[in-house]
Design goal:
Distance between the termini of chain B: 55 Å
Strand content of chain B: 5-15%
Number of strands of chain A: 1
CATH superfamily of chain A: Transmembrane di-heme cytochromes, Chain C
Oligomer: heterodimer
Helix content of chain A: 55-70%
CATH topology of chain A: Fumarate Reductase Cytochrome B subunit
CATH architecture of chain A: Up-down Bundle
Number of strands of chain B: 40
Order of helices and strands of chain A: HHHHHHHHHE
Shape of chain A: globular
Strand content of chain A: under 5%
Structural class of chain B: alpha/beta
Shape of chain B: globular
Largest interface: A-B, 20 and 26 residues
Number of helices of chain A: 9
Largest sheet of chain A: none
Distance between the termini of chain A: 67 Å
Helix content of chain B: 25-40%
């Protein structure tokens, strides 16, 4: 087992997770008002209307595909009678479709960001770096999918026998480095870029994914909140001096 | 939408299902309809917002930006930093049953605090680097600042070097001490070498920050310098106002719009340019008031209008004349309206008699002059020249009613200067009562688009009085408007649908493109409303019609509609001219202290347009003579004169001021005069000057304005962005005044027509000005061209006062923070300058006598100097020069140049001994100065020992308020009492009960304070009434300050008759092709099109302020833009946002095109004032950076604005003077390469 493999597939994933979790906590504590997508809809909405749903819904399918491929063991699918051929065909079809949607959406969004003056003006260097990594991750992912079409059916080429076991092994803290090392180069690259993306995650606009207001869909439109029982931390302390005159806030 | 049966739940089954799912997983308390949920706590986030809106202090201030808003604002400060501002809401209530003044404010004002810490802020004093090096070298060599300055500017080569560096960067940071030393040295040297009238200052609009304006002006006047005017220079001044009312811009507050029942907006885009007041216009519509807009474009205010009259740009007078035609025919001929007739008899000159005389060339009869008592009696009483005559319809005999100018200053007129007609019932027409003779008269007309005149033959009924054939002004009006009556000779309109006869509705349709039927309908509605409502028809008028060359003619034609329908001097009626923040309500205090009338009189004030027209050498390429303007019936008073000649003659005859005065230093002239008087060679200094001038040994500077001894040498600008905003012909300023790079296209040698009286130099001077100083808080075109820049405090960093025409309150500026970095208030800057000046003067100037020349002034007996408005020039060889009669007034003033700082900081003794006089009313100040000495303390030692102190900005504000009737009830009552003696009418009750009321500075800091009714203005606020002008005149029979004491339709001065404007008339926009050889209007089939070039006011800036503000740049397209119609854009292949260039003889502007359907064809809008500081690339035409919006304009002076010495047509500062109009410009617009370089 090469040292590099240990570093890449045994150490790096945990570093990535530490940064992702720690970074997010840090960001949430210290930059809550920067926890935003910094929407540019005000500057341009025509392209956004097409690009944004295409990208985001495409992405949901991509995530679902990753779940299906990485988390569910091959044995399980075979147990329910799904042959490798059918699985592969399915993954290719849905994966390519989702990937192309995501990529197309992203292309529209990047085009819009570059060509609409006010939107480009509102684009930071942080955003640009994030776009490069995000685009690279998606492109490489699509490449692994497409490349697998013509590839010979060897165990190495089947990510369900290399990448997936390694992925699952990470969670039980016994990384199967060997399995991952066997995987082809394209998978290595995709995984590395993916990890880079997650490392970057807490420090970019991507944090908005954690706080998508899904619960809005499931609650009434208007929320009335009573005051907190006790003054909360950070609130202005009662001023020294005479007690206040006039009518107190209504009794609670 | 049809209301269907309401389904229970939220928005449908899908949302219900989702909500049910949510409810399944968590429990909450909700409303019955399921739309709201109740939760406990969870408001930690509130802390942020509570903290965000808690401040260390909130300070009242406002913006001094000449927007007329004068809105009071709350400025928020946190941790010593200004965070933002919001609108104040504590304006005094205007009473029940009407809306309130608050909220006032607009997005521009709300963006102001950005400037405080912006990159454009001037933080330190700056000097032009090359100049500074030369000065320091000379200073170290000569050891004296004045000698050092003289050394630098005395060397032509070094002088040119720094002049040519102007506007090219190279400003370096210097200390305050050195900056003030250089500025003072330049002034001391100029006074010593050339005279104090070579030092100029310009700071506009006192009302927008009175203390700042006052202190600098006071400095300039104490040293004997020249303050150039702004109201006429901005072309905001309606010359028709002095012509018709004998008063300058007295207008209703916006709260009075609520009283109108018919509201026209004519050339005034209320929501954009009167944003905080526009709500009254929208609200009064809910009262049933009809709102009509007249604008060439689909302007923002047109959206609010019930009717839109889209008159072509510049043709508004044609529409107004046709409306007048309808009103005269239907309300004065076909039918009589007692309400209108009573008004016309008592308050207008319509019943007065005008002589008809044979035209000198034998063409026929023409209207001559007003018949006066002198014509009746033939006596020698000089006052009878000024008493006009009418016919008493009761007796059929001529009568001399009270109230004309002959009653105003004479001993015999005491108690009779009023509009009380007694038993006399003036006959409006010579036909009244009895039929009689009639005669054909010739009247000028200018219906041709090229501006050339023709002659109309019309008839009037006449009488013979004292051997003269006379008719009334109304008879002449009917003749002028072409409204025929039976039995009169001449050619008349066949009807409203007669397109060939001038001033019919059908005639105007061909010029304005407003349908005749609409014109008739609006005219009828307007008159009917006035008849039914007692004169509550109002016209809001503005820069869209005022700022044309013939704007005065347009205004008179529109004012006539109001005068004919009895709609003046009424709440809810009359003219509402809003162009510039003109109303400095505490008028007497500001005016007197600013001009330092407490120390020395008279001050040197100058007509701005005349000053810049001559000194920037725009006259050299003004290639047409007054013949192009004259009426075909002209009698030769202006024949063949160049415009520069008219300015020279006007100055010579004591009509308008001109500075420098003479081709010699007035300090030396005063010494020579004193020597002559001592030697017995002259009776007094004035007689000595008269003799010197007549013999030609002393010459007016204007007659050789390009000679180096007659150049202006220093110019101080504060509260102003002259070179980025108001400088019409800005490229000529750059070339001739400043001597630096410019885009002037054509050499002036192309001009064949040369002046007769003004000397021509083959080589035009470049770089007249030795020193340009400016004080500002942001970098502007002006500061970038300046030699010295002082960092000024913003409006949130000083004490000052604000007032406006639009509301009746006075309120304060207050410092939210101290001026940051090295900025100082204008007050402190001028005191520093005065101290250093006085110090240097001890060596170089000492105490000197100064011979001051000023013109004959309005509201003084000087306005009765030239009876009949007959031009008699002492240059003709036969007429003797009489100072104060047919020439300026010459006065010797002693100036202690070592005591300027002392005098600046204290109220001088003349306040006690002479009092302060405003509009003919003198206010005694002895009581007030004693009281002020108690409140402010007195100065100790020096020239002002024991005098009341005004040595801080707050104390000066207190003094301004103390010395004005509007803010000091005692003075208001005192002034009314004096006016009662002259008029014999009861007036003092308007202010009685307010004697003890004094508006103090502290009160203005607490909240906006309403002013007191005072004779300084013509309206009344008594009893909480909304201010409307001339209500005192109408209700108390106080005369207007005119020849007849009434409002004038007819003006009989020689010059006005010669240009054909004795009566209201239509004059088309100037034909720039005919006058200047510019291309004809329209597309030429190639890649360029010639359009009218208009510079209206912007939605995203106030003049040049805010156009560089990041917030406003974000809201608008930003940078220079030009609006044009899709048709015009299509003709030259321009798409929206393309770069285009505007080019004409005057310069070049590079801008992006905004192609909009709101624009009419043939017109381009370039919003005023787009500076060179934002996104200005190099032009293809010259290869140099494009200019400001004024790069393609130039000054055009209308000679009739120079008339003086004759009743209401007399000079007073910002009362009358030539306008710096710019609307008649045309420019070629072409698409340029889209690749721009900076």
């Amino acid at each position: 087992m090469a040292l590099l493999d240990i570093l890449l597939w045994g150490v790096l994933p945990y570093v990535m997770v530490a940064v992702l979790v720690g970074g997010s906590i840090w960001r949430y504590r210290y930059d809550q008002f920067g926890w935003t997508t910094r929407s540019s809809q005000l500057y341009e909405s025509r392209l956004l209307r097409i690009g944004s749903p295409l990208f985001h819904f495409g992405l949901l399918f991509v995530i679902a595909g990753h779940f299906f491929g990485l988390v569910i063991p091959m044995a399980w699918t075979e147990a329910v009678g799904m042959s490798q051929g059918i699985y592969h065909f399915n993954a290719l079809l849905v994966g390519s479709l989702a990937g192309i949607c995501t990529l197309g959406g992203l292309a529209i969004l990047i085009y819009r960001r570059r060509r609409t003056g006010p939107v480009f003006m509102a684009t930071t260097r942080n955003d640009k770096l994030m776009y490069v990594v995000l685009a690279a991750a998606i492109l490489l992912g699509l490449w692994t999918t497409v490349a697998s079409i013509g590839a010979p059916e060897t165990p190495q080429n089947n990510y369900r026998e290399t990448v997936s076991p390694w992925f699952r092994s990470l969670f039980i803290l016994q990384p199967d480095i060997g399995a991952m090392a066997e995987a082809p180069f394209s998978f290595h690259l995709h995984t590395l870029v993916g990890m880079a993306l997650f490392t970057l995650w807490p420090f970019t606009r991507l944090v908005h994914a954690f706080t998508a207001p899904l619960h809005y869909l499931f609650r009434p439109y208007i929320v009335y909140r009573s005051r907190d029982e006790r003054p909360v931390a950070g609130a202005r302390a009662r001023q020294r001096g005479w007690s206040q005159v006039g009518t107190a806030d209504r009794d609670r | 939408m049809a209301a269907g049966p309401r389904t229970p739940g939220l928005d449908g089954p899908a949302s219900d299902a989702i909500l049910a799912l949510g409810r399944y997983f968590s429990r909450w308390e909700e409303t019955d309809d399921g739309r709201a949920v109740f939760r406990e706590g969870g408001r930690k986030g509130d802390v942020f917002y509570r903290d965000r809106w808690s401040h260390d202090k909130v300070v009242r201030s406002t913006h001094g930006v000449n927007c007329t808003g004068s809105c009071s604002w709350k400025v928020y400060v946190k941790d010593g930093i200004i965070t933002w501002e919001t609108q104040q809401t504590d304006y005094p209530s205007v009473g029940p049953d009407r809306p309130e003044y608050e909220p006032r404010g607009c997005p521009r004002g709300a963006a102001f605090s950005w400037y405080t810490y912006s990159p454009t802020r001037v933080r330190y004093p700056y000097a032009r680097g090359v100049l500074l090096e030369m000065y320091r070298e000379a200073r170290s060599r000569l050891k004296d600042p004045v000698l050092a300055w003289a050394d630098v500017v005395g060397d032509p080569e070094r002088r040119r070097t720094y002049q040519q560096a102007r506007g090219k960067g190279g400003l370096v940071r210097i200390s305050w001490r050195e900056a003030v030393e250089i500025a003072a040295a330049a002034h001391v040297h100029t006074i010593k070498a050339y005279g104090p009238d070579r030092c100029a200052g310009f700071s506009p609009i006192p009302a927008m920050s009175m203390v700042s304006h006052c202190v600098g002006t006071r400095f300039i006047q104490l040293i004997g310098g020249v303050m150039t005017s702004f109201y006429d220079w901005y072309a905001d001044l309606p010359v028709a106002s002095p012509q018709v009312f004998g008063d300058q811009t007295d207008v209703p507050e916006s709260g009075d719009w609520w009283d109108a029942t018919y509201l026209m907006m004519w050339g005034s885009n209320v929501p954009v340019t009167r944003t905080p007041d526009a709500h009254w216009m929208t609200e009064v519509r809910y009262r049933g008031t009809k709102v009509v807009s007249v604008s060439p474009d689909y302007a923002d205010n047109t959206k609010f209008a019930d009717d839109w009259l889209p008159a072509q740009a510049g043709t508004d007078a044609a529409l107004a004349m046709a409306m007048g035609h309808v009103i005269l025919k239907e309300c004065y001929v076909d039918r009589t309206v007692p309400f209108f007739e009573d008004f016309a008899r008592r308050y207008t000159d319509l019943p007065f008699l005008v002589t008809l005389q044979e035209h000198p060339d034998g063409l026929g009869l023409v209207p001559g002059k007003f018949l006066t008592e002198a014509d009746l009696l033939g006596g020698t009483d000089p006052d009878s020249d000024w008493k006009t005559v009418l016919l008493d319809s009761a007796t059929g005999q001529p009568a001399v009613p009270n109230g004309s100018l002959g009653f105003r200053y004479s001993a015999s007129g005491e108690g009779k200067w009023n509009l009380d007609l007694g038993d006399v019932v003036p006959a409006l027409s010579c036909r009244d009562g009895q039929a009689g003779e009639s005669a054909e008269v010739l009247l000028p007309c200018f219906e041709a688009a090229d501006g050339s005149g023709s002659v109309l033959r019309r008839g009037v009924p006449v009488r013979r009085v004292a051997g003269r054939m006379v008719t009334t002004v109304l008879d002449l009006m009917l003749a002028q408007y072409g409204v025929g009556r039976e039995g009169l000779p001449g050619q008349w309109a066949a009807g409203y649908d007669d397109p060939a006869t001038p001033y019919t509705p059908a005639w105007q349709e061909e010029i304005t493109s407003v349908p005749a039927a609409k014109c008739i309908r609006i005219a009828r509605e307007f008159a009917k409303n006035s008849e039914d409502s007692g004169g509550r028809s109002m016209i809001i008028m503005g820069a869209g019609i005022c700022q044309w060359f013939h704007g005065d003619a347009t205004y008179r034609s529109i004012l006539s509609l109001l005068l004919l329908t009895g709609a003046m001097g009424r709440n809810g009626g009359g003219w509402a001219h809003y162009v510039g923040q003109e109303k400095c309500r505490p008028l007497t205090g500001w005016l007197s202290l600013a001009n330092a009338l407490d120390w020395s009189r008279p001050p040197r004030t100058m007509i701005g347009t005349g000053y810049w027209y001559m000194h920037t050498d725009q006259w050299r390429s003004d290639g047409y003579s007054t013949d192009a303007l004259n009426s075909p019936l002209a009698e030769g008073h202006l024949k063949g004169m160049h415009t520069a000649d008219t300015i020279a003659q006007s100055a010579r005859l004591g009509w308008m001021p001109f500075y420098p005065q003479f081709n010699r230093n007035p300090l030396e002239v005063a010494d020579d005069a004193a020597a002559a008087v001592d030697g017995g060679r002259a009776a007094d200094p004035a007689a000595y000057i008269a003799e010197q001038l007549q013999s030609g040994q002393l010459r007016s500077a204007v007659e050789d304005v390009d000679a180096p001894e007659n150049w202006p040498r220093t110019l101080i600008l504060w509260r102003s962005n002259l070179l980025g905003s108001s400088a019409k012909g800005s490229e000529y300023f750059n070339k001739h005044l400043l001597g630096t790079v410019n885009n002037v296209m054509r050499s002036e040698d192309g001009s064949e027509i040369r002046p007769r009286d003004v000397a021509w130099h083959d080589e035009a001077p470049e770089g007249k000005l030795d020193l340009l100083v400016s004080a500002d808080f942001r970098m502007t075109s002006t500061t970038l061209l300046s030699d010295l820049v002082f960092p000024a405090a913003t409006w949130y960093e000083k004490h000052d006062l604000s007032s406006t025409d639009m509301h009746p309150f006075v309120h304060a500026f207050s410092p939210a923070i101290d001026p940051p970095w090295e900025a100082k208030t204008d007050f402190d800057t001028f005191h520093l300058l005065a101290e250093e000046f006085s110090r240097q003067a001890r060596t170089h100037l000492g105490v000197r006598r100064d011979l001051v020349s000023v013109p004959l002034q309005h509201d003084t007996p000087g306005e009765t100097a030239q009876p009949g408005g007959v031009v008699r020039d002492w240059r003709d060889g036969a007429t003797p020069l009489q100072p104060g009669r047919n020439a300026p007034v010459f006065t010797v003033v002693e100036r202690d140049y070592t005591a300027i700082a002392d005098k600046l900081a204290a109220v001088g003794p003349l306040a006690d001994t002479l009092g302060f006089t405003v509009k003919g009313v003198t206010y005694r100040m002895d009581h007030e100065t004693a009281r002020l000495a108690g409140a402010n303390g007195v100065m100790f030692g020096g020239a002002a020992d024991g005098r009341p102190a005004i040595d801080t900005d707050a104390k000066l504000a207190e003094a301004i308020l103390s010395f004005s009737g509007t803010t000091n009830g005692e003075l208001a009552v005192q002034g009314f009492r004096e006016l009662e003696r002259r008029t014999g009418r009861k007036l003092a009750d308007l202010a009685e009960g307010s004697e003890e009321k004094r508006v103090s500075f502290a009160q203005t800091q607490a909240a906006p304070v309403p002013v007191i009714t005072s004779p300084e203005w013509s309206g009344s606020e008594t009893g909480g009434r909304r201010y409307a002008p001339f209500t005192v005149n109408v209700e108390r029979l106080k005369p207007w300050h005119t020849l007849t004491g009434r409002m004038h339709f007819f003006l009989d001065h020689d010059w006005l008759r010669d240009v054909g404007e004795a009566l209201p008339i239509y004059r088309p926009p100037l034909d720039m092709h005919r006058l200047f050889g510019e291309p004809r209007l329209g597309a030429d089939g190639a890649a360029e099109i010639t359009l009218r070039y208009l510079t209206p006011h912007s939605k995203w800036s106030i003049h040049s302020e805010y156009q560089d503000n990041l917030l406003m740049l974000s809201l608008s397209r930003g940078g220079p833009t030009l609006w044009m119609s899709p048709v015009d854009a299509g003709a030259i292949g321009v798409a929206d946002n393309d770069w285009v260039e505007c080019v004409n003889a005057n310069g070049v502007l590079v801008a992006r095109a905004i192609v909009s359907h709101r624009m009419p064809e043939g017109v381009a809008y370039v919003y005023h004032a787009q500076e060179r500081t934002i996104d200005v690339p190099k032009s293809e035409t010259t290869g140099r950076r494009g200019g400001i919006h004024n790069s393609v304009t130039r000054l055009l002076v209308k000679p009739t604005h120079l008339v003086g010495g004759y009743a209401q047509l007399s000079y007073a500062f910002n009362y009358l003077g030539p306008t710096g109009n710019q609307r008649d410009m045309v420019s070629t617009v072409r698409k340029r390469s889209q690749e721009v370089r900076y």
